[in-house]
Amino acid sequence: MSGIEEAQRQLLQKIHTEGVLAAYEAALSVCRDPKAPAPARATASATLFRVAGYFDRKGEGDRDKEPHEMTPEELSRAVRHAQRQLQTAPTAEDGIFD
Predict the structure, then answer these.
(1) pLDDT tens, position by position, 46-59
(2) Which residues of 69-97 are buried (b: 16+ CB within 10 A; e: fewer)?
(3) Which one, 2, 17, 20, 32, has least CB within 10 Å?
(4) Stated pTM of the model
């Protein structure tokens, strides 16, 4: 591993630990600050909800079925969907610094 690759690895490690924690604390601080402008509080709140996954959740009636609950047609559709996702998924060779 070259010196550049090691520096990049260390930087990413800090971003994934210290950076994420600092971003969380900053967003939470804005949410809790009654003097913060309303748009800033709304943006910080939305960010926290989004990261927590609340915006991606479906209603209980819309939840994805477990495979054992699916009909053969639904299973086939789910398999085709998974295959499409695998074909377009980034590979290990698709590094962020390439």
Answers:
(1) 999 888 888 775 55
(2) eeeeeeeeeeeeeeeeeeeeeeeeeeeee
(3) 2
(4) 0.52
